[in-house]
Structure formats: structure tokens, C-alpha cells
Amino acid sequence: xxxxxxxxxxxxxxxxxxxxxxxxxxxxxxxxxxxxxxxxxxxxxxxxxxxxxxxxxxxxxxxxxxxxxxxxxxxxxxxxxxxxxxxxxxxxxxxxxxxxxxxxxxxxxxxxxxxxxxxxxxxxxxxxxxxxxxxxxxxxxxxxxxxxxxxxxxxxxxxxxxxxxxxxxxxxxxxxxxxxxxxxxxxx
Length: 188
Fold this sequence. Notes:
Strand order of the largest sheet: 1-2-3-6
Shape: elongated
Strand content: 15-25%
Number of strands: 7
Distance between the termini: 35 Å
Mean pLDDT: 85
Radius of gyration: 21 Å
């Protein structure tokens, strides 16, 4: 979808630029302005192509790098992990940060973004099952003793194996997630 948006924005901007060059008077300014405004999505897409998306999970907290923002926060400063909808109706996890969080660090790189105190994580872009990631993040926030599995360089098995994730996640952590979604290949 972003590639199609880029092509459509470039085509429309080019068309309006040609129209602006062929008309006269006030219409020239109006069409040129529309052509320039359409360059916003083009700039946004080009910025997004330059920035890889990453997620860092460690015993202290989480960090995320996207084309909008690099953000990090300690587990104890996370207020909520909610479900959102991204492009193409994909699952986006919205990590809400407590308003008084001392550990929250952000670095904005996208000129058209607004600051919200939320870290967006798109599991599909990371190549992860969104339900498994949602379960894991809730577990690390609600059960501090489980954060020890984040030590070392290995990806926690719970992010890749639905059976293990369901078997090792307490019901009070998983009920809110499993009421809405089920991981692929997982049964409970």
C-alpha cells in the first residue's frame, strides 16, 4: 500500500504541476499549491524507507525504532498496552507511557508526526505474530519475574512458539488478549 500511495501522490503532483504550467492567472498558483502539498506523502514515504523498524526487549524495558520515533521506556513506566489498527487494517500495539515516566526517552525524526506519549509497535513489519507479541509484552509488564528471560542475545521462545506462549502465560495476563485473538497454531 505505501508504494501505491507513493506512485499515486507522484502522479497527481506531476499532473497538477503540468496543469499549473499550462493555465494562467490565479489558477496557476492554486494548481501549483496543490502539487506542492501532494509532496507531503512522498516525503513521508521516503523517510519511512530510510528507517528500519526494530524492537528491543531487555530486562529493564522496551525500545522501539520506527520511521516516526525512537522510543524507550522501563517496564514499570508502561501504563497500558492497547490494540490499534495500522495501515491495511494490520494490528498495531500501542504502548501507553505513564505521564510522569522518568525513564521514557523519545527521538522524533518524522516532520509530520505528533507527539503522544505512545510507542507504536507493528508486529507484521517485525515479522512477528501480533498476538504472541501482545501476550509477551503484557506478561513482562504484569509479571516482573519473567523479565529475566530477556537476558542474553536469544529471542524468547514465547515470541515464536504459540504452544509455549499459551502454556506459560498466566490466565490473568492472557484473558484480555485471547478474548479478542488467537495465535496461529496455538490452542488452549
